[in-house]
């Protein structure tokens, strides 16, 4: 039996097919197909995080944190499995990390279009630019855990920045 060699997402990975969605773990990791978008799959995954964030606002914050924690742990396993199937540990089609990172960025934000738009922009900015600690986690932690951790860190940075912007806007009003 041939062993598949894992590569990093920096190398040009092969494009996955919709057949991968038949595996429930891969379906979750690929954001139920959002990761199959031919352009900007990470952005598509982050967009999928918006309705999750809106749904979580209906829960007490502690319960929302618990739900995100459980979805993150599940994501570590699903992303690792999808990475093994794709032969790339952080394949661009794996977007569950963006879904959860986006929801985390909006965790304590009341639903509002401009708040969600700003949170989305901040999350994508931190996810793409990878400032410390996002970039360090991306480079130093491998497997499913590494896939999830850098986006969780981007979500925390975006969430804190968004909260500070909301506080500043409230003081100016």
Strand content: under 5%
SS-derived structural category: mainly alpha
Give a short account of the largest sheet. none
Mean pLDDT equals: 92
Question: Could you tell me the number of beta strands?
Answer: 0
Rg result? 16 Å
Envelope shape: globular
Q: How many helices does DSSP assign?
A: 7
End-to-end Cα distance, whole Å, is: 66 Å
Number of domains: 1
Low-confidence stretches: 1-5
Please give the share of residues in helix.
55-70%
- Give the topology string: H per helix, E per strand: HHHHHHH
What's the gist of this structure?
This protein has one domain (18-172).
List the helices and strands and how they pair.
Elements: H1 24-29, H2 41-56, H3 61-86, H4 96-105, H5 113-129, H6 134-140, H7 143-172
List keywords for this structure.
single chain; mainly alpha; 7 helices; 0% strand; 65% helix; 173 residues
Describe the fold and architecture.
The chain has 173 residues and is mostly helical. It has one domain (18-172). It is built from 7 helices and no strands. Helix 2 packs across helix 4 (96-105), helix 3 (61-86) runs antiparallel to helix 7 (143-172) and helix 6 packs antiparallel against helix 7. The N and C termini lie far apart (66 Å). 41% of the residues are buried. Residues 1-5 have low confidence and may be disordered.
């Amino acid at each position: 039996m041939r062993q598949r060699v894992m590569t990093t997402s920096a190398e040009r990975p092969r494009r996955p097919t919709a057949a991968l969605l038949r595996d429930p773990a891969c379906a979750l990791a690929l954001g139920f197909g959002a990761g199959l978008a031919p352009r900007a799959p990470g952005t598509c995954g982050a967009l999928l995080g918006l309705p999750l964030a809106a749904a979580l606002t209906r829960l007490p914050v502690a319960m929302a944190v618990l739900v995100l924690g459980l979805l993150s742990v599940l994501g570590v396993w699903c992303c690792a499995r999808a990475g093994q199937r794709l032969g790339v540990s952080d394949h661009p089609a794996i977007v569950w990390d963006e879904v959860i990172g986006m929801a985390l960025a909006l965790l304590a934000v009341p639903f509002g279009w401009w708040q969600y738009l700003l949170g989305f922009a901040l999350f994508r900015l931190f996810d793409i630019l990878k400032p410390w600690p996002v970039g360090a986690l991306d480079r130093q932690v491998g497997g499913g855990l590494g896939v999830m951790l850098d986006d969780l860190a981007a979500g925390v940075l975006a969430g804190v920045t968004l909260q500070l912007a909301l506080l500043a806007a409230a003081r100016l009003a």
